Amino acid sequence: MHVAMIGTGYVGLVSGACFADFGHTVTCIDKDAGKIERLKGGGIPIFEPGLDLLVAQNVRAGRLYFDTEAAKAVAEADAVFIAVGTPSRRGDGHADLSYVYAAAEEIAGLIDGFTVIVTKSTVPVGTGDEIEAIIRRVRPDAEFAVVSNPEFLREGAAIEDFKRPDRVVVGTDDPQARAVMTELYRPLYLNETPIVFTARRTSELIKYAANAFLALKITFINEIADLCEAVGADVQQVARGIGLDNRIGGKFLNAGPGYGGSCFPKDTLALVRTARDAGSPVALIETTVAVNDARKKQMAEKVARALDGDVTGKTVGVLGLTFKPNTDDMRDAPSLDIVPALQALGAKVQAFDPEGLHEARQLLRDVDFKDSPYDVAEGADALVIITEWDQFRALDLDRIKLLMKRPVLVDLRNIYKPDDMRARGFSYTSVGRPLTGPITGKA
């Protein structure tokens, strides 16, 4: 089948490359000429493991193309996907749908014959209705169906998520559109992937409800972690104890500095605004948003407590700036709250991230960016792990200790064992586990 993908951001590029790998002919379209030229030259504008190889293979096979002009690709397409950004709108938290509606208006003038127009972007309930109205207004004669097909891609594992998903959700009541979507995803039948067909508005809400539930689950275990610290319990053991219950499950029960990224912050906020507008407020999600926002800032105070309550004039080394490992995405990363909060308390910050330094330099001020974890440790009064990159899991701790002014490690991802750190002579602080000072006399 022929697919046009409007937008070559994270969702559009990954989805387009994977559809091409399924055997479809895909053209990814973007108005950013520089980005398209880079893609044509084999460059990848985002960091996602395996994406460069997948794109190169399908370009060579003649199934994947890139263009700034949509006319030819849309006219030939069986399905046109809208995969543009829907950032939070300044001032009210609603999803900014201007890019979605602009794409719909452009598509309307280009479609030829029956075309399925698929919303891949995350959009509030009722957006599909508005897209349909726009196209009807521009092209009253057009033959088309508007379908909701939300994405459930985790950054760092997006290709696996697309090719081996838990489910595919398709929102449409149109039998012809259903047939097109079934054919597009036909390769997944080999994996017995459930394809859930629903009404369009239901599909739109599924995406928001899923992300809100996961955000709530993260916030729940973070609050339990705080309670564990207060009463002397271990949050990792609590998480395992409740996660083995099949009704709860163990995923998203890792305590930490709070959620960030491209989806959870904006999607929870958009759901809150949608619910208020509908006269059906979602108090649990409103509380989740507030608790998570406050938590990220509180992590700076945790670091200060590890340094006897005062970081004034002290050097804090930060390991990890992106919101999660295996991505260069800095959107709503906890580091964007923690680093400025440390600076406000008087600390000097030096930092390293394997993939996020370019973006971090645009977003963080007065930070001394370093080239390695060991450069960050040199001269530091405390070392803080914010993002759990694999390379931070097996640091040469003896070398780290020698480089630091003081052997103070604040592990906001619980990647080390308290007893091991204590035996090595570190003052070690983690999340939801007992504080540990060094064993007297130990090196």
Describe the structure.
- The protein folds into three domains: 2-198, 3-Layer(aba) Sandwich (Rossmann fold), CATH 3.40.50.720; 208-290, N-(1-d-carboxylethyl)-l-norvaline Dehydrogenase, domain 2 (Orthogonal Bundle), CATH 1.10.1040; 295-429, Rossmann fold.
- The protein starts with a strand and ends in a 14-residue tail after the last strand.
- It has 17 helices and 14 strands.
- With 443 residues, it is α/β, with parallel strands linked by helices.
- The strands form three sheets. The chain has a six-stranded parallel sheet, with helices on both faces. A six-stranded parallel sheet has the order 11-10-9-12-13-14. A two-stranded parallel sheet has the order 7-8.
- The mean pLDDT is 95.
State the CATH architecture of the largest domain.
3-Layer(aba) Sandwich
- Regarding quaternary structure, what we see is single chain
Query: Cα distance, first to last residue?
Result: 65 Å
Q: Low-confidence stretches at least 5 residues in length (pLDDT < 50)?
A: none
Tally of contiguous helical segments: 17
Radius of gyration of CA atoms, rounded to a whole number: 24 Å
Topology-level CATH name of the largest domain? Rossmann fold
Count of individual beta strands:
14
- What structural class do you assign from the helix and strand content? alpha/beta
Write down the domain tally.
3
The amount of helix comes to 40-55%
CATH class of the largest domain, named Alpha Beta
Summed up, what is this model?
This protein has 443 residues and is an alpha/beta fold.
